[in-house]
Amino acid sequence: MPEQRLYPAPLIMLARIFIVLLVIIAWLAVFCLGAFIDTNPLRQGLQDNFNLADFLFIILAWIPTNIAFLSILAGLMGALSRGLLRQVEEAGEAEAKKNRALGGSIAGFMFYMAFMAGAFVMMDQPFTNTTEAQYYRIAGSISFVSFIAGFRPDTLRRILEKIPGF
What we know:
Blueprint: H1 9-36, H2 40-48, H3 52-61, H4 63-85, H5 94-122, H6 132-151, H7 153-161
């Protein structure tokens, strides 16, 4: 017996497109916070006078945590985009599709963690004097890999299998 849907397919497609657009806008907003906001004065002020609003703003704008949010959003963006392109394959993949967005977000965060581990292995204080150009390179590279992890996990798996010991 064919599965009955509660909502028509075009409505579901529009909802998915809307969600992808929201994720893209969120990524751009978080990227701009990391690119344009100097959190050093806010972090110094937070030590003297704790303010919850400043603390939350610092979490979004400080480069190490900002890149974490960018990675999560990029992985989510890749997973949701893949879902849009593969909506034709609905038969038999209902359960896998439910977990795709979460899997893409986790993959994006995994690459953020790998980047942070490498950055701290290479330098003692990797984010003390980060330039705008360095930020653009880091955020773009990590977000691209995170997008690929969400969009084509099989491609990423094949790349990782070629790394000895992984």
